[in-house]
Amino acid sequence: MITEITAQELNTESFISGKVMEIKETVGDGTAINALSGGVDSSTVTMLGHRALGSRLRTVFIQNGLMREGEAEQVVGFFRELGVTVEVIDARKEFFAALKGVTDPEEKREAVTQTFYKNVFGRIVKQSNAKYLLQGTILTDVDETVAGIKRQHNVFEQLGIDPQQVFGYRIIEPLIELRKDGVRKVGKALGLSAELFERIPFPGPALAARVIGEVTPERIETVRKTTVIVEKLLKDTGAFQYMAILHEDRVTGMRDGKRDFGLQIEVRCWDSIDARTATPTRLPFETLEKLSHKIINDVPGVVSVTYNIATKPPSTIEAI
Amino acid sequence: MITEITAQELNTESFISGKVMEIKETVGDGTAINALSGGVDSSTVTMLGHRALGSRLRTVFIQNGLMREGEAEQVVGFFRELGVTVEVIDARKEFFAALKGVTDPEEKREAVTQTFYKNVFGRIVKQSNAKYLLQGTILTDVDETVAGIKRQHNVFEQLGIDPQQVFGYRIIEPLIELRKDGVRKVGKALGLSAELFERIPFPGPALAARVIGEVTPERIETVRKTTVIVEKLLKDTGAFQYMAILHEDRVTGMRDGKRDFGLQIEVRCWDSIDARTATPTRLPFETLEKLSHKIINDVPGVVSVTYNIATKPPSTIEAI
Fold first, then answer.
1. What is the pTM of this model?
2. How confident is the model over B306-314, as a mean pLDDT?
3. pLDDT given at position A272
4. pLDDT confidence band for B154 (50 / 70 / 90)
5. Is the C-alpha dihedral spanning A193, A198, A199, A201 positive or negative?
6. Strands A258-271 and A279-280: what pairing?
7. B254 vs A contacts (CB less than 8 Å)
8. What is the dihedral of CA A171, A172, A174, A176, to 10 degrees?
9. Chain B residue with the nearest C-alpha to that of A253
């Protein structure tokens, strides 16, 4: 039912002017709202929306406490330079309260999704006058949800849930015919800086998807610190995506001659074109050893580091 | 209190004749018993004991259900060729019953140790007339217990527990001044085949030490199948030790287009001289990929494989 536009056949200029026109026509003289995560998809949608609606699009960035180091400040700064004002909403307490005691990955994802939509964003939308919600859904999201691999919080429509009924607004999804590589081309054409639009993909539940087991402020801080190291050391590899995962399993370690039953971090670094299939990047052992040493030295409690060597399929990009 | 004999200064012939004489003098015209695991230490002790006592040493191999594929048959066969009869005791039910519901690594180790000594071996010793127990304790076992890193089941004496009081026998530890490399030299001089005495070290709790979380017959079977693959593919690497670890954490996978919340295997392969410090072997990526593919294809339920990249310290050789 959705016809794919491949990155190869994509004409960015006509795509952009077509989508800007569609958004203008759909919203009319109403107002729209969108949540910006800082990923390529939502950033591109933000730019399309602002080109179409200007200040009649309200863009919010929800600080859920699950973000990478300095992420909110960085994203807001990028858009400030492009003349787009982004409003930051601090909702950390609500998210951690919803995640307390939750260990099942599906329930965790559900807790983040529900807190995001029903509690935080739902409340903001209801309190605003906006009737239109812009979303960065791409074709891969639709595929994966249909296949039952992941619950995507942004595909209510495809799942047969009427978003107007659920949250009282209408969804506009201008990127739904594209895959990640197509979105990157559009983002670039819309003036997004290389730094921003080439950011590595980041999952909806953010760092909560990088923690196996219960998500607490302390465990998020552990994986956040590790993520800084992994992203710094792997940014020049040309890999499609790379990440640190905090395991729930504890392993034996030794510090100052004493037993230390500590944390294990798993590093994944993927080579891929479009995330549908992926293989582990053949990193030099010097890089793997540097990663391991830096993580063990700088992140309190970590005694062991692994590198994932499985392919997708049957593995997936994210661990949970 | 124990003076180390390094592998370099070790004169195997005079060491062996000295120990054979000591064992003869200690046991007198009594009988001795020992438990053979198939590792270098217990194999070497078995040969020393048989040289000293002949048929007055009774050697038992306790099948705890936690062994590697075909291990009991293989070990018994090796010794049969050397003219040594080894008696196999099937105690699988007792071990799995003791491990049921146990997830804490210390409690797991304790369950295996207690079942081995108190229940199974203790019973055999009490039912036999043997007053002397030969044990393959080496100097590294003593070091590590003193440092509190691992509970070693074979160092009661060093821990101040009188074994005569505990189990009603006296312990003879002929290898206690040696480290692993010294034991290998002695084993070789005693005629142990390269296949046997060069076997990679294996922990006391056997495959139970390779399972994070609860040990069940099914989970042991998973790690046993994986161990066959890992040992086959890594045996020619010249590495000090290599192993497969089944994690308790589950990760997302995808099979036949459907979500499959599956198992993760961690592979460790160590370069080391004496196990006191160790670094991950720089395996070629072709080998890592072959490992991962074979494990995922041949071992039911596994969707993800990692390779450990941490050094000891702060990591340890075994995960639990």
1. 0.77
2. 96
3. 95
4. very low
5. positive
6. antiparallel
7. 147, 149, 312-316
8. 30
9. B315
